[in-house]
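Summary of Year 1 activities. Much of the first year was spent building the evaluation harness for sequence design. The harness presents a backbone, in tokenized form, and records the residue chosen at every position. We chose the following record to illustrate the format because it has been used consistently in internal testing since the harness was completed.
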């Protein structure tokens, strides 16, 4: 793919990799109120010191109400031939409800962009395999075997918009301000260990799970092999991809609550577990033993959007908090914000064009998830002890 060609970038950027960079931001409106993309763009673009101009992206939930019951497949295509090949494949394996270009406006500094396309799609009904699983297999197949094609996102009533460029350029390219969503995620910079290319920018997505990530997952090899044992294909060879797939595996396929999934991804250290009561210690040891290959090691902070069945936003850092994460809640307690830095919040306080207020700003504890969902509000603030507020049924010795 010509837009995968790292050597086409300016020479001064080819080997410019800032391992402790990345700006991440997100927010969710508890009552489901939809807001346009101006707020999330302001939250992200203030973090320009974390950028290098090689990648940025946005994930928006609730943007396709007229097609909310269909899978919204966002594509990047190298050329018309690769697009036609994928469209024909989709027609063979399912039903195309609508096929159209993703509206774009090319800024002066975005060179030679790919074809951006979206298809609202339903798979054909099959025995012994769910629609979700069919779409997962479809995404894996296209990303692995269709030259010149890449699936950016595949969820319902949501979409990912990403590419090479500065965060403001990508927002302008996709006209992010024109979309309205109840939950937004955003990221600036490209994956740490792979070249900057359009499909490799964050967020990473599978079905209704999207992830933005700052840091480096040193357990990538273990996580990848574990996922492949369940049929996932890690074709992008980047650590953030495995986070998105792990959340999908734990929460959708294994149907465990997101609170427990967060403990599987970043479990407490054993010396902390040993200080808990017997039942709590036993439960955490079971989680660690069962999902030891899903545990994330290395410095990281992530924000995850999840919408199956209840739209939820999760923030999580590594167990030593080697990467930053800041949270805030609005005065009416309806909106929960997360970001790499407080600057994301403070910028909006002085912006007269954005409705913004804050009741509180805090720093979640290391390795402790902050979780907010539609209707249920702020479920966990990231300051709790392990398993606090979580009901347990523990069996075994």
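For this record, the design step produced the sequence shown next.
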């Amino acid at each position: 793919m010509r837009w995968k060609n790292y050597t086409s970038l300016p020479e001064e950027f080819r080997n410019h990799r800032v391992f402790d960079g990345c700006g991440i931001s997100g927010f969710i409106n508890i009552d489901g109120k939809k807001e346009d993309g101006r707020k999330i763009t302001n939250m992200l673009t203030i973090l320009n010191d974390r950028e290098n101009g090689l990648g940025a992206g946005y994930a928006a939930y609730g943007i396709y109400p007229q097609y909310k019951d269909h899978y919204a497949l966002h594509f990047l295509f190298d050329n018309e031939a690769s697009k036609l090949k994928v469209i024909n494949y989709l027609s063979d394996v399912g039903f195309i409800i609508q096929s159209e270009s993703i509206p774009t406006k090319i800024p002066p500094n975005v060179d030679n962009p790919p074809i951006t396309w979206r298809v609202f799609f339903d798979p054909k009904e099959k025995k012994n395999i769910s629609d979700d699983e069919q779409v997962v297999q479809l995404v894996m197949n296209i990303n692995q075997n269709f030259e010149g094609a890449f699936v950016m996102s595949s969820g319902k009533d949501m979409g990912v918009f990403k590419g090479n460029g500065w965060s403001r350029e990508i927002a302008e390219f996709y006209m992010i301000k024109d979309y309205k969503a109840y939950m937004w995620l955003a990221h600036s910079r490209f994956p740490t260990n792979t070249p900057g290319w359009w499909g490799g920018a964050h967020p990473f997505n599978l079905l209704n799970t999207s992830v933005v990530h700052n840091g480096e997952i040193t357990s990538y090899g273990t996580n990848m092999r574990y996922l492949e044992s369940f049929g996932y294909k890690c074709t992008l060879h980047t650590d953030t991809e495995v986070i998105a797939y792990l959340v999908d595996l734990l929460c959708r396929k294994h149907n465990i609550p997101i609170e427990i999934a967060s403990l599987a991804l970043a479990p407490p250290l054993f010396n902390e577990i040993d200080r808990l009561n017997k039942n709590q210690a036993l439960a955490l040891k079971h989680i660690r033993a069962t999902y030891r290959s899903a545990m994330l090691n290395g410095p990281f902070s992530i924000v995850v959007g999840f919408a199956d069945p209840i739209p939820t936003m999760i923030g999580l850092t590594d167990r030593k908090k080697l990467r930053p994460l800041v949270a805030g809640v609005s005065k009416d307690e309806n909106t929960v914000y997360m970001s790499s830095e407080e600057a994301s919040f403070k910028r909006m306080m002085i912006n007269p064009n954005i409705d913004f207020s804050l009741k509180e700003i805090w720093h979640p504890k290391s390795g402790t998830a902050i979780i907010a969902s539609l209707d249920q509000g702020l479920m966990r603030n990231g300051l709790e002890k392990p398993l606090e507020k979580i009901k347990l049924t523990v069996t075994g010795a």
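Confidence is low (pLDDT under 50) at residues 1-10. Quantitative recovery figures across the full test set are reported in Table 2.
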